[in-house]
């Protein structure tokens, strides 16, 4: 992961090493599998998904990476369907928010993964282009609905 993080920081390296479609497809493979109802073989699914989200957020934080997620790369989702990484990321985040996906044996894992993927979406929403592309998904409404379900925290002073 540290190597991926270093590559993300170097724009030229990231463009050559991280942005090609096969690399993005590999990063998103566990996400796509979970969206398709398949099992993923990871030691710690929540930790792995959180690390994947971290790399995706770093990619989305650059102009070139954002353009890649929103417009350029067609991911193979099924044998007959192709889509953009932003679509996969937002759909996965929505499913996490709606608690349709969970990590077996890791009760808090879904919350951690959900927060990490919300941050990836935030990186994409951070621009007018990203907001325009992602707005139809209604992620902002799903986040607001999930936030309303969180019990109020009481702090003692």
Automatic annotation (TrEMBL):
One Pfam assignment: BROMI
Residue ranges of domain BROMI middle region in the record: 1-150
InterPro entries: BROMI_M
Domain of life: Eukaryota
Protein name in UniProt: Protein broad-minded
Organism the protein comes from: Liparis tanakae
Gene from which this protein is expressed: tbc1d32_2
